Amino acid sequence: MSDSVANGGGRVEDLRLKLTSSETSTTLVSPTTPPSDAHCPLVTDPPPPLYKPGLTMSVSDGLAGTGKEVDGGEAPGMGVAMGVRTYKIRWFILCLFVLYSMSNAFQWIQYSIIANVIVEYYGVDTTLVDWLSMIYMITYIPLIFPASWYLEKAGLRRAVLIGSFGTMVGAWIKVGSVARNRFWVTFAGQFVVAISQVFILGVPPRLAAVWFGPDQVSTACAIGVFGNQLGVALGFLVPPAIVPTTEDMDLVGQRLSIMFYGVVALTTTLFITIVIVFREKPPTPPTTAALTQEETGSYVKGIVKLIKNPGYVLLLLSYGINVGAFYAISTLLNQVVLAHFEDASEDAGRIGLLIVLAGMMGSVVCGFILDKTAKFKLVTLVVYLLSTFFMLGYTFIFRLNQIWLVYIMAAVLGFFMTGYLPVGFEFAAELTYPEPEGTSSGLLNASAQFFGVLCTLADGQLLAGFGDMAANLLLVAVLIVGSIMTASIKEDLRRQAAHGRTAGANGATSM
């Protein structure tokens, strides 16, 4: 122990000499920052804006931050171990992302949930209205690869800025689509917003890993996904409440205008706030695992490693099936409900809202359970099996012709099916560590969009030709396949192992 302390002191003394040498001007740079932005203050600099004073590291204190013990070994790429800690502003950063994600997700479902009104107002068929939802999925598949690469190379701030800007621009374009002969304008606006989502869906695990400690990372990821779910929930609730089912097309046009301008006000405010406030990363990483992860190889090599990981490939397919089925349910919900209950557009919206609200609760509960138990495969499999079971119940509940029973079954289905989203993200991060979360989650979302398009197209055809039971039974069948794939995944919790090694090293150092 005495030798270890002596050697650690020697390294600190050497670094102090290098920093104070008149011949050398050195800036300590955290490896997460791209070279064009990278600047972590010298130990004598004031703390960065928006961070509490007293959180800067002191070399003479052994890089212990504000008194926390730090591993005495060398961090990758650094001549001395760096301190790790969290900052209170992380919660504001997360909240801002949640609102931004919400504003984008709202626009995904805002047309499909009032499909009957949109069909009548613009004079188009239901397939074109379905495409206003599916355009989100189609654009995501080819764009997620460059977007994930950009997230890894340019960082969180730049990716979020681009996404929030596109979300705002798309909302402004839709303002010009109120005339009944301008369906193509509303489609163009939806296309821009759809492109912007590629800078959203892969962010939650990355943001959680960069800003939050090991005991909060799953919860933070769940909250990040919560923003997307919240947007979908409001997308189910608000459009039917604003835009009525009526033969007065002038009234419909006025209400559509109100909805479009409301979205513009929100997205513009959020973009300005993000420009001013959103930060790339904290001055010091929250975990040693986060620090180590920043030394991974190129994006292409990372993709190759992921594809060669059999556990991840199985999760990639099973995640895509589960979330793709959810996309199909959401897109066709209005049509399914109206097939059994006339003039129930608002009920369809409330059912969709209930699905997502229950899913938000499921996301938080599952994230909390993961943080407390670290039983990633068990939680993932149980949630998947219950999603399949209640999808079967949802299929047959319409036959009872009691809409209150549909509400209950939809809520239970939403708790597990939507609650699965952050569980899949976090399980993927565990299986693929130390590859960047943005890459693994980006591929998961690409899989979800691919299966979402397939399920929506197939379900739409079955719904039109054979009714909703055939359409929903197809989703039950694919979920059974996904459950089998999930059960076949070998649990290899690499990130948890990294946290364990760090804790062990810190314990040995403090002895």
Automatic annotation (TrEMBL):
Write down the superkingdom of origin: Eukaryota
- Tell me the compartments it is located in: Cell membrane
List the catalytic activities from the record: choline(out) = choline(in); ethanolamine(in) = ethanolamine(out); heme b(in) = heme b(out)
Tell me the GO BP annotations in alphabetical order: erythrocyte maturation; heme biosynthetic process; heme export
Report if keyword Signal is assigned: no
Q: Which GO terms describe its cellular component?
A: mitochondrial membrane; plasma membrane
| Main location, first listed in the record | membrane
Q: Where are the transmembrane segments?
A: 91-111, 131-151, 158-177, 183-205, 217-238, 258-278, 311-329, 349-371, 378-397, 403-423, 443-463, 469-489
Q: Which Pfam families match?
A: MFS_1
Tell me yes or no: is Transport among this UniProt entry's keywords: yes
Q: Which residues are in the Major facilitator superfamily (MFS) profile domain?
A: 89-494
What GO terms are given for molecular function? heme binding; heme transmembrane transporter activity
Keywords assigned: Cell membrane, Erythrocyte maturation, Glycoprotein, Membrane, Phosphoprotein, Receptor, Transmembrane, Transmembrane helix, Transport
Membrane topology term reads: Multi-pass membrane protein
Name the family: Belongs to the major facilitator superfamily. Feline leukemia virus subgroup C receptor (TC 2.A.1.28.1) family.
Q: What does this protein do?
A: Uniporter that mediates the transport of extracellular choline and ethanolamine into cells, thereby playing a key role in phospholipid biosynthesis. Choline and ethanolamine are the precursors of phosphatidylcholine and phosphatidylethanolamine, respectively, the two most abundant phospholipids. Transport is not coupled with proton transport and is exclusively driven by the choline (or ethanolamine) gradient across the plasma membrane. Also acts as a heme b transporter that mediates heme efflux from the cytoplasm to the extracellular compartment.
Q: What is this protein called?
A: Choline/ethanolamine transporter FLVCR1
Organism the protein comes from: Scylla olivacea
